[in-house]
UniProtKB/TrEMBL annotation:
InterPro entries: PAP2/HPO, PAP2/HPO_sf. One of its GO terms (molecular function) is sphingosine-1-phosphate phosphatase activity. The chain crosses the membrane at residues 70-88, 154-176. It comes from Salvia splendens (Scarlet sage). It holds the Pfam family PAP2. This is Phosphatidic acid phosphatase type 2/haloperoxidase domain-containing protein.
Length: 235
C-alpha cells in the first residue's frame, strides 16, 4: 500500500508563492512613489561595509575610557557573528533574490541569495545593542558632540531613533526589491537570540579584554627588562 505524499512541501511552496506575490505587490505599488535615492540611502546606511570600518576605526583610535572600548568590542563581535550566521544560513537555504530588481547585481554581485536578509538582521542587532547600551553610548560619545548635551532630544530618544531607522531600513529591503517579506522577518528573528547572547556575555568579553591588557603589559615589561639587561652587559 502506497503512503500518501507529505503535505508539508506543498504547504511550504504555497507559503513561498504567497510571500513572493505579496513582496511583488508591495514593490510594484511603492516603486513609483518612493524615490530610489531614499531607498538606496537606507540600503547604504545598513551596509556592513560601512559599519565594520567605522567600528574598527573608533576602536583603534579610541581615546575614551576602557568601558567604552569593551562596548565597541561587544559591537564588533556581534557584527562578526551576525555576518557568519546570515552567510551560513544563506548558503544552506540558497533562495534566489527577486528577479524584478534590475540593478541588484550591479551592487551585490557576490551575494545572490535572498534568505534571510543580512541588512535587516544587522540593523536589528544594532538597534537592540544601542537600546540596551543607550545610556553608555550617550555618556561616551553623544554628549561630546557639538551642540549636544544630556538633555538634548536626540540623546533622550536615541534608542527610539535607532529602532525607527532599523525598521524603515528593513522594510526598504522589500520596497527596493532586494528581498522578499519573509527574508526580512527571518533576518530580524534570527538576530534576536544573537543579540541576547552578545549582551549576556558582556562580562566574559570584559574579562578577556583585561586579560589581554595584562598579558600585553607583562610582555612589554619583560621586553624592557631584557633590553636593559643587554644594555648593562654591553657596557
Amino acid at each position: 500500500m502506497e503512503s500518501k505524499p507529505s503535505a508539508h512541501p506543498s504547504l511550504l511552496r504555497r507559503l513561498i508563492n504567497l510571500d513572493a506575490a505579496v513582496s511583488l505587490h508591495l514593490y510594484t505599488f511603492f516603486h513609483p512613489i518612493l524615490p530610489f535615492s531614499l531607498l538606496k540611502s537606507l540600503e547604504l546606511s545598513g551596509d556592513g561595509r560601512l559599519f565594520f570600518p567605522i567600528t574598527l576605526s573608533i576602536l583603534l583610535f579610541n581615546t575614551t575610557p576602557t568601558s567604552a572600548t569593551i562596548l565597541l568590542l561587544n559591537l564588533l563581535i556581534g557584527l562578526i557573528l551576525d555576518l557568519l550566521l546570515i552567510g551560513l544560513t544563506k548558503h544552506l537555504i540558497q533562495r534566489p533574490r527577486p528577479v524584478y530588481n534590475k540593478n541588484m547585481f550591479l551592487s551585490f554581485a557576490v551575494d545572490h541569495w535572498s534568505f534571510p536578509s543580512g541588512h535587516s538582521s544587522r540593523v536589528s542587532f544594532i538597534a537592540t545593542f544601542c537600546s540596551f547600551y543607550s545610556r553608555q553610548i550617550a555618556d561616551f560619545w553623544l554628549v561630546k558632540l557639538p551642540n549636544f548635551d544630556a538633555h538634548s532630544w536626540i540623546v533622550e530618544y536615541f534608542a527610539l531613533i535607532v529602532w525607527l531607522w532599523a525598521g524603515i531600513t528593513s522594510v526598504s529591503r522589500v520596497l527596493l526589491g532586494r528581498h522578499f517579506v519573509l527574508d526580512v522577518v527571518a533576518g530580524v528573528l534570527l538576530v534576536k537570540n544573537l543579540s541576547v547572547e552578545v549582551i549576556d556575555h558582556d562580562v566574559m568579553i570584559e574579562d578577556a579584554y583585561f586579560w589581554f591588557l595584562r598579558e600585553k603589559s607583562e610582555l612589554s615589561l619583560g621586553s624592557t627588562v631584557t633590553v636593559c639587561t643587554i644594555y648593562d652587559v654591553a657596557n
